[in-house]
Amino acid sequence: MTFHNPSPQAIRDLLSKARTLAVVGLSPKPGRPSHDVAAAMQNYGYRIIPVRPAVAEVLGEKAYADLREVPDKIDIVDVFRAPEHIAPIVDACIEMKLPVLWLQQGIINETEAARAQAAGITVIMDRCIYLDYMELRR
Fold this sequence. Notes:
Layout: H1 8-17, E1 20-24, H2 33-43, E2 47-51, E3 57-58, E4 61-62, E5 76-79, H3 86-96, E6 100-103, H4 110-118, E7 122-125, H5 129-136
Parallel strand pairs: 1-2, 1-5, 5-6, 6-7
Antiparallel strand pairs: 3-4
Helix pairs in contact: 3-4
């Protein structure tokens, strides 16, 4: 199987329409990639919903232990978890009928990406949402 990300134009369109990012694995510690990327996206006007157990809030937003607990509409699920932890996230995305699953740079799980795509979810894998935003917003 060979995974292909959406075209740059399709990614640009997704980022321009999205307003809310649920960030799975968002660290409360500045300097961590998940924290810095989420903070940058928040500064560009995106609402960040932290999804991380045992944390009350991150970046001034209430945190949730699981995607299924998030009461608000989610446009993109942005994942900072190791590839072996992706299956339960895909399960939640399918169950919740979420439109976009974004696996951050360095996170590759073709089996789960294919499963999400088969359920109608747009998948972006092994790309940084912040770097794409900076590159494609021009």
